[in-house]
């Protein structure tokens, strides 16, 4: 984890994690809040929960945490309102910053009440506006119904009177006397007007017809533009309807159907003069409401802008206060309730800084009693803390993804900084592709300040976090590309002319038969003359395969050597004598010897078959080697190495369980032992096997050692073979690059057509970027990751520790966004 304000390269020791100590701090209640706040600024103490048996509601500061949660809810409400209004919180400092939680609580309460009231009034006004807008539509459309009905009735009447004569339109069909004599003959038609959603209009009409058995008359007219529904507030396409009915029962049925279909009903008059008057009144009220709504929106926008200017400060303050009270709840309170007792882990180097922060808190809170800081002795396993910077963090994360290092065991992250990008580059060796990767990474590195403050996507975030890893991968790829002499699969005579020339000026078929060595050996990397020859593939296969074995054996030896340093550091002589030594003997008797044979063969130019040598070393070690002999006395050395390998297996298996049993019996027999110093106690307990602290089961230990021995013996073979992936992926990368160059770019060039050439270049670029620079990069990265996690780290790395997670304001994440 990085330290803020330290710059790029702070002093650090990545080989072993920082020395940790368990500390106890006794803080007076009056200065506790300020002390925890200053410790949070430092970020160098991981507090232990001393109230684990208590529920969150039983703890001392539960009320304060509830208050902070309520303030956080109000801030989330403000953020949502600002996002809806299209505003973003500004980061500039406010003129009047609120420093007290009580003042902030009052201020946020007032602002929330005001904003809620503005929203409620705005919603009411908007609903009224939407209802009036619908009412206006009903008045217009329904008025059109009645006007058209009246005009058609007048036309019918004129036609009737012209034929029958005499009676006016107002003359009743039945005489007044008949009507009065028989009230049942009076027919009163009622009507209901409103709007119904267009997608429900057909169903609405069918249900009305069925419910009233056809005793209704329905007239609908479509509204051209969608209207805002007063209830939902969403834009909906609607139809204006008028339903004519007779009788109260029919009316009740129609009202229920309107309610079920979400149809909004509005009052309407038949009087034409009143209709025009009502339309004028509704239009006037609509304009008044629009003015009022606009004024409310301006006021709301000003209020939200004022909130946005101080939002970030308030948010940080609330999150800090909540974190402080969460931490205070982890502290145990004294019987007298005058002081709090804290326990936690801190690095040894941070002692003075922590004491200084505690003293400052006492002074600033005007407390009469200073805080007490003391180191406790313990046998508990401390957390693992590496001080890293922005360069080394990504490499340490690669190791931590496998498992966090046990306290002060050797950290593979130190070697990963070099070995990981190098093994990647062995599989990705092409200096053209390496330059492309480097340019892409330099973009992230140059703009890292700007990009670090932005929200990137998941993949971009991961790429940006590993920008320095990718930079080293690119640099090593350029280096191995020079060795392989490949630039997008094309060789160049960079360091000197080729050592080979054509024996016959007429020879065009570039083969090793037609070439003779005329100059000094090419000084660095593969001679460009090998490219395109019939023997190129056999030559490069042999070179890369042997090189993969050499690199693999070297890295596995490094892993075993680190297990020796772990044993020495933790004073574990059993692991030194019965793990490190037999493992070194077994690995190097077989595969170390193979590596020596490869080097001897390269140096002497021998034609010995190493497959034959290694196979018959096991099958018939006493047979003569004949032409496969590389040096005198080889047969004797092979027999000796084979015997050593055979001896090292029981050496690994048998002594360690018996010695552990004797060690346990000896410790178990001692009733009292002097308490060691704190640092010695931590180291010995962090390293020695836990058998001494639990019931010792010899059979379990023996089976565990048997599994470990079998795993190492078989792993020595499988892990060495696993390193051949370096050869396989390097060959695949090279051949894919050659295919894209020859079968796409050169093929397009050969047509002498500018369009085909442009298309060929585009396909070549897309194939290079998509396959070689993205998929092959990911593939080589994953294979390098596997080689480190499995083949390298399983030789020495336990990875069963836990990370140092200090209380730090710098590490606080935003609450739900």
UniProtKB/TrEMBL annotation:
| Intracellular or extracellular location(s) | Membrane
Q: Which InterPro entries match?
A: V-ATPase_116kDa_su, V-type_ATPase_116kDa_su_euka
Family statement: Belongs to the V-ATPase 116 kDa subunit family.
Record has Cell membrane as a keyword: no
Question: Know the name of this protein?
Answer: V-type proton ATPase subunit a
Q: Which residues form a coiled coil?
A: 94-128
- Going by the entry's taxonomy, the superkingdom of the source organism is recorded as Eukaryota
Q: Which UniProt keywords apply?
A: Coiled coil, Hydrogen ion transport, Ion transport, Membrane, Transmembrane, Transmembrane helix, Transport
Membrane topology recorded in Swiss-Prot or TrEMBL: Multi-pass membrane protein
* GO CC annotations, alphabetized: vacuolar proton-transporting V-type ATPase, V0 domain
Q: Which GO terms describe its biological process?
A: vacuolar acidification
Q: Name one GO molecular function term.
A: proton-transporting ATPase activity, rotational mechanism
Residues passing through the membrane, by range: 422-446, 467-484, 547-565, 577-600, 636-654, 754-775
What function does this protein fulfil? Essential component of the vacuolar proton pump (V-ATPase), a multimeric enzyme that catalyzes the translocation of protons across the membranes. Required for assembly and activity of the V-ATPase.
């Amino acid at each position: 984890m990085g330290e803020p304000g330290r710059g790029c390269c702070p002093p650090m020791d990545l080989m072993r994690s920082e020395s940790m100590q368990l500390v106890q701090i006794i803080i007076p209640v009056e200065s506790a809040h300020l002390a925890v706040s200053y410790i949070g600024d430092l970020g160098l103490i991981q507090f232990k929960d001393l109230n684990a048996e208590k529920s969150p509601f039983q703890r001392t500061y539960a009320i304060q945490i509830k208050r902070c949660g309520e303030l956080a809810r109000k801030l989330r409400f403000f953020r949502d309102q600002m996002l809806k209004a299209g505003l973003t919180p500004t980061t500039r400092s406010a003129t009047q910053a609120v420093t007290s939680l009580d003042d902030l609580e009052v201020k946020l309460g007032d602002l929330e009440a005001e904003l809620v009231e503005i929203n409620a009034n705005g919603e009411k006004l908007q609903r009224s506006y939407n209802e009036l807008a619908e009412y206006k539509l009903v008045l217009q459309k329904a008025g059109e119904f009645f006007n058209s009905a009246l005009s058609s009735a007048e036309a019918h009447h004129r036609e009737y009177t012209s034929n029958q004569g005499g009676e006016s339109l107002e003359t009743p069909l039945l005489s007044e006397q008949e009507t009065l004599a028989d009230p049942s003959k009076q027919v009163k038609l009622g009507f209901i007007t409103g709007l119904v959603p267009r997608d429900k209009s057909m169903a609405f009409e069918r249900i009305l017809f069925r419910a009233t058995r056809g005793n209704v008359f329905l007239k609908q007219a479509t509204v051209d533009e969608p209207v805002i529904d007063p209830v939902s507030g969403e834009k909906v396409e609607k139809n204006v309807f008028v339903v004519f009915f007779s009788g109260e029962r029919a009316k009740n049925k129609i009202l229920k159907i309107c309610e079920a279909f979400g149809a909004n009903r509005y009052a309407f008059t038949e009087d034409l003069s009143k209709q025009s008057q009502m339309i004028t009144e509704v239009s006037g009220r609509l304009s008044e409401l629009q003015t009022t709504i606009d004024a409310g929106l301006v006021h709301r926008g000003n209020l939200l802008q004022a909130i946005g200017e101080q939002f970030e400060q308030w948010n940080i303050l609330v999150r800090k206060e909540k974190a402080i009270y969460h931490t205070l709840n982890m502290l145990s309170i004294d019987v007298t309730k005058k002081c709090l007792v804290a326990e936690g882990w801190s690095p040894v180097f941070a002692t003075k800084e922590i004491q200084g922060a505690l003293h400052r808190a006492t002074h600033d809170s005007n407390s009469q009693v200073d805080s007490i800081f003391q180191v406790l002795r313990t046998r508990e396993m401390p957390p693992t803390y590496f001080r890293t910077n922005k360069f080394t963090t990504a490499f340490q994360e690669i190791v931590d993804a496998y498992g966090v290092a046990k306290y002060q065991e050797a950290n593979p992250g130190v070697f990963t900084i070099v070995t990981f990008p190098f093994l990647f580059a062995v599989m990705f060796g092409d200096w053209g592709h390496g330059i492309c990767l480097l340019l892409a990474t330099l973009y992230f590195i140059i703009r890292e300040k700007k990009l670090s403050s932005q929200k990137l996507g998941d993949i971009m975030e991961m790429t940006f976090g590993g920008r320095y890893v990718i930079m080293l991968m690119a640099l090593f790829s350029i280096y191995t590309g020079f060795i392989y002499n490949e630039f997008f699969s094309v060789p160049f005579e960079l360091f000197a002319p080729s050592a080979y020339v054509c024996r016959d000026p007429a020879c065009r078929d570039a083969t090793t038969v037609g070439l003779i060595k005329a100059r000094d050996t090419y000084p660095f990397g593969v001679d460009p003359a090998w490219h395109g020859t019939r023997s190129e593939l056999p030559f490069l296969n042999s070179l890369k395969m042997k090189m993969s074995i050499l690199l693999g054996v070297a890295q596995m030896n490094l892993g075993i050597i680190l297990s020796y340093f772990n044993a020495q550091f933790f004073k574990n002589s059993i692991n030194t004598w019965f793990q490190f030594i037999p493992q070194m003997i077994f690995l190097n008797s077989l595969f170390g010897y193979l590596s020596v044979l490869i080097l001897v063969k390269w140096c002497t130019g021998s034609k010995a078959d190493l497959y034959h040598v290694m196979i018959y070393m096991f099958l018939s070690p006493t047979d003569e080697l004949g032409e496969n002999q590389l040096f005198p006395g080889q047969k004797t050395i092979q027999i000796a190495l084979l015997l050593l390998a055979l001896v090292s297996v029981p050496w690994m298996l048998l002594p360690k369980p018996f010695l552990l049993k004797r060690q346990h019996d000896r410790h178990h027999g001692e009733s009292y032992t002097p308490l060691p110093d704190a640092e010695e106690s931590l180291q010995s307990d962090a390293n020695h096997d836990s058998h001494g602290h639990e019931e010792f089961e010899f059979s379990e230990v023996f089976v565990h050692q048997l599994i470990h021995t079998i795993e190492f013996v078989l792993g020595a073979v499988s892990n060495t073979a696993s390193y051949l992936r370096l050869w396989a992926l390097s060959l695949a990368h090279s051949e894919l690059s050659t295919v894209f160059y020859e079968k796409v770019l050169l093929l397009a060039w050969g047509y002498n057509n500018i369009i085909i050439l442009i298309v060929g270049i585009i396909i070549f670029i897309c194939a290079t970027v998509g396959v070689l620079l993205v998929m092959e990069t990911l593939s080589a990265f994953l294979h390098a990751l596997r080689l480190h996690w499995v083949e390298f780290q399983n030789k020495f790395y336990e990875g069963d520790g836990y990370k140092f997670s200090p209380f730090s304001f710098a590490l606080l994440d935003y609450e739900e966004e």
